[in-house]
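INFO batch 0412 | record 1 of 1 | parsing
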Amino acid sequence: MYAREFLVVVFGILTCVKSDCNVVSKSQWGGLEPVSVSYLPRPVDLVIIQHTVSSFCKTDAKCKTQAQNLQSYFMDQLHYSDMGSSFLVGGNGKIYEGAGWLHEGAHTYGYNKRSIGISFMGNFNNDTPTEAMLQAVKDLLKCGVDNGHLTADYHLVGHKQLIATESPGSKLYAKIRSWPHYLEDASILKK
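INFO prediction complete | emitting tokens
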């Protein structure tokens, strides 16, 4: 009797953690489960904003396909155990589950064990992030703090502040620099 009640509670907690913050789950977008996982210590104090340098998607159907293509690239071409990003952001203003809140991603060498990587789908040297995309990420970050995934004083940086890359693209980078948790001097972050 107690074992059954315990399993129901554990299942409820795992379901809540997996689907919280209005994130489109892997099962909803047709993603594959990871081959293996490493868990992040929580709460996390670093968020890295990136772009995928792929096609920009505007519809649910195209964003689902884009998420599937990105996961296939990471798993089939790069032989990673899962998609590199923690979350993907579609031009439709929806957030798609990648490695998620709990699992270590493979997005920024030297920082994966302590950060969440959020990738905007598109090339934001050319594309302009929509207000829906920006608001979706702001809402995700607030929810991450509220649910204990992120520290209240987390730092937010652009991918290019940590490694030699153009990511997250000039148009997206210009937007995130005005966000409250943006960290101008990323040199204080230690690998």
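INFO post-check: The chain is about 35% helix and 15% strand.
INFO record closed
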